[in-house]
Backbone:
């Protein structure tokens, strides 16, 4: 064991000696309380503790780079796994504190030619600003020099050979050369350093052909400048050189802009908690502290517009009124602000909109629901979908092919004109755009994942977008998914001689003394009926001698009422029946509760679980989309039948045990069906897992326990048709992107090969090609059919 | 046309000077928030 560790150490140190020495300040990170700031424990084997750290990577250029870092890291001892997200420029490393430490990991990443830092927010921001500036400055230098070089080159475009005196044209070439130098040495240095780094590691990436193309153009043009009579020819291409460097840098700049726009929703969500917050000291004054220094039980002051740093309870407000408004749209999907009074709970990540308040923290960090959501999103963004893995595999042989065809093109023309031969090769190298291919899938999927997040739909793996796009059967796992947890009165039958209002009033009068869900339902039905007639809110009937028999019913006596006297009972048929009077039990379809007085039966209330709003509409939308809809439920036949009829599901199976459900799933699978399973995610984990793709209703369910591909945070069924639609649109966009990338390369490489494209045209082509892919993906950041529109159409009906 | 022998080198020098000015602007943060400056026109004078 020791030997292995020692060897690995030798390996790392020998690697690091070639590159800039590791930053000594990394050593600080090796102490436990330091690395805990960007790490969390994982795994459940106490003998071998593992840690998962999040690192910010710098220097990633193309999808191939993430592979380099992943392979490089997973080769080290003590590192269990390493996953890199190209788009988020983040690495998640799982490592064993017993075998390695953060400074070794950071040094290893540097040895690979990248730089890494612990992913904490503050540094994130500073790094981003510095990087934006330098990228912008490179682009500006290239653009400015391009314009000036074009000026020097223009005379040669407008005159015939020999019109300009040779010493003047010589001077112009010199001037062009001088102004191409900054472009060559500064603006395009990233292409060279990346290509060189990959070569050193025997890797091949997008930057290699670009760097070769730039290099060849510069050498050919410089030779023509200093030795016009030499065998390189006397044509200079400085205008082309500066132009395509400018185009490439423009493309990257726009790409970064577009990409940060697609990720904007996720970023703003992940970084919504402020970095520091005002904490109350023991002397009731406030001082600003970092979030990491907060403890459970601290009292913090949250200003208007700030997000709550943790779950907690409102303790006091600044101004007169005792309440504030909060925006919890992230966690509940509820977009209207919610009123919170003192002693109400507030959740981490929701915004305070009303007034400055103090809260006492009850839960902080990763254990809050907000923390879990953020973790889930980060994990999902890191995962590589199947199509994108495929593109990565294709990219490498493709680059070899491109370099090979450039060499062939140059050899064929070599004997005719050395300069032209090399410039043709350069055009072939520059025009190819495997970036469009490797960007096609992740750009689109991340864009649509961010659209989902905005709607309160969390996605666990990007691959699930592809899966849900081609389903043909939707199975609702249980009635509870379609119905709310509360019960409502479906219909009332009553004895002749009294009215429905009488019956309900009496039932409510007795029900208000009980906490049973059915009693609550009766009371709320009564209150609603009063509300419709603008009457006072409480039953006017007074009762005494109230007895509740658990699981059976309640009995009471009227107290000095003008119309009624004697006893009253509410409950099951058996409870309400005495020796002399039998309760008629008629309808077997409903769960029923009965009301009786001393003279016998008064009324029967048929009850039903309340079906969630919009469900029927959503089911019909699913059916319109040619999907088969089924309901599998463990409930009794009549309950399931009622629900199914009410919402328009014809295929249903009641009284299913989990085994029955699994069996049904297997049968459908054998028929070749692609199944979307929708459940609550808590008790039906195995069933959800065995489906093609699954959705869990996240309302009130701890996210870490919800084992599904998607989690609907607000439990709103009406989002499902839109989700499927959007996923299908995403797949269409991905197909468009991939087709575009293939067609572009298939057309442009031959054109360049036969000398029909000049170097600057090639640069423009490649730049536009990758911008098109990202811009196409950008269309997915919004849902095409907003929920409001479908709500409106529902109301119109 | 002898003047070109002065003007062309001069244009190179001027280009480099302008680049220097742009460098100062970029690293002075002038391009960081472009919208804000435009918006400020509409704000009331603070005096």
Residues:
């Amino acid at each position: 064991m020791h030997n292995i560790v020692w060897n690995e150490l030798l390996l790392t140190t020998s690697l690091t000696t070639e590159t800039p020495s590791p930053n000594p300040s990394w050593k600080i990170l090796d102490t436990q309380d330091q690395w805990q700031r960007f790490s969390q424990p994982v795994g459940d084997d106490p003998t071998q503790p593992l840690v998962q750290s999040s690192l910010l990577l710098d220097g990633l250029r193309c999808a191939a780079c993430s592979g380099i870092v992943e392979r490089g890291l997973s080769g080290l001892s003590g590192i269990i796994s390493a996953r890199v997200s190209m788009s988020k420029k983040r690495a998640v490393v799982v490592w064993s504190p017993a075998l390695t430490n953060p400074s070794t990991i950071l040094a290893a990443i540097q040895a690979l030619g990248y730089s890494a830092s612990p992913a904490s927010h503050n540094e994130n921001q500073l790094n981003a600003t510095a990087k934006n500036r330098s990228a912008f400055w490179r682009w500006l230098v290239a653009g400015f020099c391009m314009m000036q070089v074009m000026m020097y080159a223009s005379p040669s475009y407008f005159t015939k050979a020999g019109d300009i005196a040779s010493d003047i044209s010589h001077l112009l070439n010199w001037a062009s050369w001088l102004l191409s130098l900054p472009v060559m040495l500064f603006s395009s240095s990233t292409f060279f350093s990346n290509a060189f780094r990959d070569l050193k590691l025997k890797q091949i990436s997008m930057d290699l052909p670009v760097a070769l193309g730039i290099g060849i153009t510069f050498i050919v043009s410089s030779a023509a400048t200093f030795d016009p009579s030499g065998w390189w020819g006397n044509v200079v291409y400085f205008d082309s050189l500066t132009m395509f460097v400018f185009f490439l840098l423009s493309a990257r700049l726009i790409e970064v802009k577009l990409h940060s726009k697609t990720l904007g929703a996720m970023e703003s969500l992940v970084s919504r908690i402020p970095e520091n917050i005002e904490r109350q000291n023991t002397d009731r004054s406030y001082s600003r502290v970092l979030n990491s220094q907060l403890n459970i039980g601290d009292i913090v002051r949250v200003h208007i517009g700030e997000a709550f740093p943790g779950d907690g309870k409102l303790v006091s407000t600044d101004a007169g009124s005792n309440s504030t408004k909060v925006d919890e749209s992230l966690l509940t999907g509820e977009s209207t602000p919610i009123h919170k009074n003192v002693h109400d709970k507030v959740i981490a990540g929701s915004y305070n909109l009303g007034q400055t308040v103090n809260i006492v923290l009850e839960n902080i960090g990763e254990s809050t629901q907000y923390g879990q959501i953020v973790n889930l999103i980060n994990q999902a963004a890191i995962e590589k979908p199947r199509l994108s893995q495929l593109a990565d595999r294709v990219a490498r042989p493709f680059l070899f092919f491109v370099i090979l065809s450039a060499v062939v093109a140059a050899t064929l023309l070599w004997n005719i004109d050395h300069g032209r031969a090399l410039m043709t090769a350069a055009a072939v190298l520059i025009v190819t755009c495997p970036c469009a291919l490797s960007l096609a899938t992740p750009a689109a999927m991340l864009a649509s994942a961010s659209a989902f997040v905005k709607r309160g739909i969390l996605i666990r793996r990007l691959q699930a977008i592809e899966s849900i796009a081609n389903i043909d059967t939707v199975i609702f796992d249980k009635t509870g998914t379609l119905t709310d947890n509360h019960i409502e009165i479906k219909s009332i039958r009553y004895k002749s001689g009294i009215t429905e209002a009488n019956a309900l009033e009496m039932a409510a009068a007795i029900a208000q003394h009980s906490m049973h869900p059915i009693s609550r339902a009766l009371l709320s039905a009564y209150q609603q009926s009063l509300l419709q007639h603008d009457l006072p809110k409480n039953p006017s009937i007074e009762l005494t001698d109230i007895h509740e028999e658990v699981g059976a019913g309640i009995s009471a006596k009227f107290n000095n009422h003008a119309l009624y006297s004697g006893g009253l009972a509410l409950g099951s048929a058996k409870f309400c029946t005495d020796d002399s009077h039998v309760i008629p039990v008629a309808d077997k379809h409903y769960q029923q509760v009965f009301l009786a007085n001393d003279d016998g039966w008064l009324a029967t209330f048929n009850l039903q679980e309340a079906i969630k709003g919009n469900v029927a509409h959503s089911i019909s939308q699913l059916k319109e989309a040619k999907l088969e809809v089924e309901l599998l439920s463990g409930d009794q036949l009549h309950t399931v039948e009622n629900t199914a009829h009410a919402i328009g599901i014809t295929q249903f199976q009641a009284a299913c045990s989990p085994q029955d459900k699994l069996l049904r799933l297997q049968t459908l699978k054998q028929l070749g069906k692609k199944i979307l399973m929708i459940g609550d995610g808590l008790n039906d984990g195995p069933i959800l897992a065995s489906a093609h793709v699954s959705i869990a209703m996240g309302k009130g369910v701890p996210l870490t326990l919800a084992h599904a591909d998607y989690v609907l945070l607000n439990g709103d069924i009406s989002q499902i048709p839109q989700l499927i639609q959007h996923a299908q649109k995403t797949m269409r966009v991905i197909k468009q992107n991939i087709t575009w990338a293939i067609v572009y390369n298939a057309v442009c490489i031959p054109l360049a090969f036969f000398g029909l494209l000049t170097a600057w045209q090639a640069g423009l082509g490649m730049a536009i090609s990758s911008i098109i892919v990202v811009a196409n993906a950008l269309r997915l950041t919004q849902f095409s059919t907003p929920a409001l529109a479908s709500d409106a159409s529902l109301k119109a009906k | 046309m002898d003047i070109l022998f002065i003007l062309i080198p001069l244009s190179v020098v001027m280009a480099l000077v302008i680049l220097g000015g742009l460098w100062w602007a970029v690293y002075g943060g002038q391009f960081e928030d472009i919208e804000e400056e435009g918006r400020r026109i509409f704000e009331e004078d603070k005096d």
